[in-house]
Design a protein that fits this description.
The complex is a heterodimer of chains A (about 110) and B (about 120). Chain A contains no helices and 9 strands. Chain A has strands at about 10, 20-25, 30-35, 45, 60-65, 70-75, 85-90, 95-100, 100-105. With about 120 residues, chain B is an all-beta fold. In chain B, about 0% of the residues lie in helices and about 50% in strands. Chain B is built from no helices and 11 strands. In chain B, strand 4 and strand 5 (about 45-50) form a beta hairpin. Chain B is globular, with a radius of gyration of 13 Å. The chains are: A mainly beta (about 110), B mainly beta (about 120).
């Protein structure tokens, strides 16, 4: 099976930069997509194809990839960014694979 | 505004069947890939199935292959998931999700989910 590994939690103060990582074997070969889910709400796509932003995603959100790690970076973090964040790839033989999710806490 | 509203979740015994529905609005339904994704506390998010706009491309995850059938009615903007031979491990929240017009690799929009519980 193919596994995407995320830290269970990340904490950051308002105005600082949050970095949420997603690790996977040979992840460089796959496009990585990121979702945000706030309590009681449906998930929302915030980054797709590694670094593209859907309309509606603030420019403060960016995605990157290097080696076996993809990173979601949130600049100038706001209280409203507090949520769970999931990474996802479409694996050639395993289909859609999600990371376990990272809870972002804004201190 | 895109809306995806799932229905049909219920309590069912192992070996039973259930049909989930998803009513879509706010976009040209027939143009888009649609998916079912489920979530459990233990296994997290799992991609169950997708179907292309013209129904020519269909995918099932290994855990549901041969038991679940995805379909859509583009005239009624509706997506369905027929679930047969249900197992305890199929217990999950099932989300209806909208992909792209040419790509199924990600999901633009999700519904709120419907709960399926398989238990004796």
């Amino acid at each position: 099976s193919y596994v995407l590994t995320q830290p269970s939690s990340v904490s950051v103060a308002p105005g600082e930069t949050a970095r949420i990582v997603c690790g996977g074997d040979n992840i460089g070969s796959y496009s990585v997509h990121w979702y945000q889910r706030k309590p009681g709400e449906a998930p929302v796509l915030v980054i797709y194809y590694d670094s593209a932003r859907p309309s509606g995603t603030p420019e403060r959100f960016s995605g990157s990839k290097s080696g076996n790690t993809a990173t979601l970076t949130i600049s100038r973090v706001e209280a409203g960014d507090e949520a769970d964040y999931f990474c996802q790839v479409w694996h050639s033989s395993r289909g859609g694979v999600f990371g376990g999710g990272t809870k972002l806490t804004v201190l | 505004q895109v809306q995806l509203v799932e229905s049909g979740g219920d309590l069912v015994k192992p070996g039973g069947s259930l049909r989930l529905s998803c009513a879509a609005s706010g976009f040209t339904f027939s143009d888009y890939y649609m998916s079912w994704i489920r979530e459990t506390p233990g296994k997290g998010l799992e991609w169950v199935s997708y179907i292309s706009g013209a129904t020519s491309k269909i995918y099932y995850g290994d855990s549901v292959k041969g038991r679940f059938t995805v379909s859509r009615d583009n005239s009624k903007n509706s997506l369905f998931l027929q679930m047969n031979s249900l197992r305890v491990e199929d217990t999950a929240i099932y989300y209806c999700a909208r992909g792209g017009t040419t790509a199924h690799y990600y999901v633009f929009d999700w519904g709120q989910g419907t709960l399926v519980t398989v238990s004796s």
